[in-house]
Amino acid sequence: MTKELKSKLVKNAAGRYVPAVVNGIASIPFKGVNKYRPDNSMAAPPVRTCADYPSDGNKLVKNLKEALKKVGLKNGMTISTHHHLRNGDGLTNVLFDTIKAIGVKDIRWFPSASFPCHEYLIKYLDDGTIHHIEGSMNGPLGRYATDGKMKGTGILRSHGGRYRAIQDGDVHIDIAVIAAPSADAFGNANGVNGKSACGPLGFALGDSEYADKVIVVTDSLVDFPCVPWHIQGNNVDYVVEVDSLGDPSKIVSGTTQVTKSPDRILIAEYIAQFVEESGIMQNGFSFQAGAGGINLAFLLLLKERMKAKGVKARFIRGGSTQYLTEMLEEGLTDYILDGQAFDTEGVRSLRENPNHVNTSPFTSYNFHGKGNFASMLDAVVLGATEVDANFNANVVTHSDGYLLHGIGGWQDCLFGKCVILAIPSFRDRVPIIVDNVTTLCGPGEMIDVVITERGIAINPLRQDLIKKLSNSKLPIRKIKDIQQEVYELCGGKPQQPKLAKDKVAAVVQWVDGTLLDTVFAF
Amino acid sequence: MKTQKQKSGSAGRVGPNVKSDCFVQLINTSSGGITIELKSKVESLYGDSIRSQISEILKHFGTKNATIKIEDQGAVPFVIAARVESALKRAGLGTDKVFLIGNTKSTKINLRDRTRRTRLYLPGNEPHFFLNAGLHKPDSIILDLEDSVAPSEKDAARILVRNALMNVNFGEAERMVRINPFPLGIDDLQQTVQYNVQTILIPKCESSARIEEVDSEIDKILKLHNIKRNIFLIPIIETALGVVKAFEIASASKWNCGLAIGLEDYTADIGVERTKAGTESLFARSTVINAAKAAGIQALDSVFSDVNDEEGLHQSVLEAKAIGFEGKGCIHPRQIKVIHEAFAPTQKEVEYAQRVVDAFNEAKQNGSGVISLGSKMIDAPVVKRAQHILSLVKLNSDK
Lengths: 522, 399
Description:
The complex is a heterodimer of chains A (522) and B (399). Chain A is an alpha/beta fold and 522 residues long. Chain A folds into two domains: 53-134 and 171-251, Glutaconate Coenzyme A-transferase (3-Layer(aba) Sandwich); 266-495, Glutaconate Coenzyme A-transferase. Chain A contains 15 helices and 29 strands. An eight-stranded mixed beta sheet of chain A has the order 18-17-16-15-19-22-26-27. In chain A, strand 23 and strand 24 (430-431) form a beta hairpin. Chain A is globular. With 399 residues, chain B is an alpha/beta fold. In chain B, the strands form three sheets. Chain B has an eight-stranded parallel beta barrel, surrounded by five helices. In chain B, strands 1-2-4-3 form a four-stranded mixed beta sheet, with helices on one face. Chain B is elongated. Chains A and B meet through helix 8 and helix 15 of A and helix 1 of B.
């Protein structure tokens, strides 16, 4: 398979070079936002019959090894896992220990994301148990891929893009292994009950619907029925009970900390003021909240402004935290539409409050559907590792070329009505506003505002916003002026990292499945 | 053949929690030219630039043979320059020279009675805190060479502070330096006052003689460099004796622009604990305020040490304002906004001030020397206070 890594690069509509063939499959270069219109049909799993499943609903098998054997694990299969247990995930590492023990090789691992705890799996990438990863790679695995050590090419998709790839048939999952904090023997499962409760299980939804075989693994088996059923047992082949799915303290945090960094609080203040002064903050509005340091501080500051003005939101999209659930409980929003819960309060609220609603990448983000929630958001606040003077942004690699982050829902959220990138203007001596982003993840036409501690830059495409803010006391500046100031502070324009650019570590897909850019290996 | 002894020196900091700084170790060798061993977080972005900067500095100091090891955590150029210079000087090299980068010229004339509601302390040997300090819009920043710098790091801090004064954009903030008590303070002055300082804070003042010494030292240095003086002084009263001598100190120099009180040291000096209520220091604070006003300068309050207690800080500023203080020390940027808000005039104060100023303008227009508001005669100090209140309103709305 290594030969195809040298396959030729083609220039896409964003001017970036992407491989024509990835892991043996011809790719489609990015054609522009909303330009690619596939005309094929969606994937469908084979027809099943109840006659093949126990009529008493008991699909329990004694352990994971037996389940993997029963579903017919073979060399070269695609196995999916999900990141709702975050850095507390104890199941995925055990899953690959078991696959190794069975002696199967060349697995395409298709996680919704990986975390630093999965550094453990490097030995299985080394010994060929895992062929390559298609999914967001955080930290150590990203470093491994960028160092050129992975056998195949990594494919990075957004959360919505992952659902789309499954639904469109780009990725055929042989076996989905779903960690379920609460499940019954039929396979109904949710993430709000049990000792490993994590919140929504939406990342696993598409896998449960389209995979050939589905195994649910739980550390909290309840009698039928397990309600609510975020995952429907009717899609599940086998259920395995284990002692523990992982470390609850790393699955969700007890309390989410708001940043104390004065610079980040300043950025958060600017965002809150911007959202109010631009007129976005009005009765019935909506926005996306996150759990990052700036995002939480922004949420608290916006809350004060909403209270002062008597403004109420119709819905807020989570990442839920205690700060978000407080807003729901204090009547500052009618609904939370939640994709993942970051702390115990988020989980509790999702379990108890009918207005805290479980969502999935299908409802929120899927680009090949009849609409999705992300495009309906009035404001979205996102981070980035780099942005250029044309507002093109990077969220996966650092300026030194290393792949260290996943895309998450970032690309999907770019369809919101006002997309705000909240970023420090430099990190230590690393300028964030660059001449050319290391990896393009979001086309500049999708990004409306960049907010840094040194000023706010509005995309010239948004003359309406520029006009609205023309009398504002906010430090509204040209993006190039902020860039210049930071270059001066850091001692000039940085030199270009010495990347050979002849070896592909991973590719970045756009939400429609076309290739937006390439992460090169060292 | 004579064997030459190797000279070495190191400066700066390294470690997982150190940001925007670097650790430099320099060994002067007898031959072999310059060897630079660089380990930098930003190697791929600025590695070449760092190496050429170091070569330039060594050349400036006439160092031809040396091994220089640098562990860099993303230090910006003026920090690297300061650390290399300190390492060289600690190795006994180039002690008669300085390596200057940035601007030496002060851009704006400083004013004696500018607003000094907040003065943000920045530990003089921690560059990480310098870079964004101005963004939080304190009225002044203090690059501190005194209590926040360990005795063994005074030399390195002076070089770093000097480079910061010439390179960091602190925005509109007044650039202050707090020097050490003498004799260390003399070195502090010699290495900073000609480099873009606007105000010197003199700690632990107990006599007018100290102020006079500082004054003449500053004049001497500026004369040597042919710079016209625009540097003010703020003596800090931190002892029982200092309180007794408050007026003598406040009126010791025409360059005094404010008189500050330091309550951590004062309470220790009188042998009590510092409380939030502050009963133990009421006499000292009142004395300092009275002395400052008698000398026609600003009265500046101590810092509020509990960064997390924003409500307590707000209260403490209201109390300080009520007894006559016009400014407060800050130990964290988060305190700035709270203090500015607490110093902001009340609606009632603003309305009254506006009426006074209107009456003053009307009288001026009519060519009348007598200003009256209703049945009351208005004196010049009342007009001045009213104008001050309106200027505060403008400052707050411009935030």
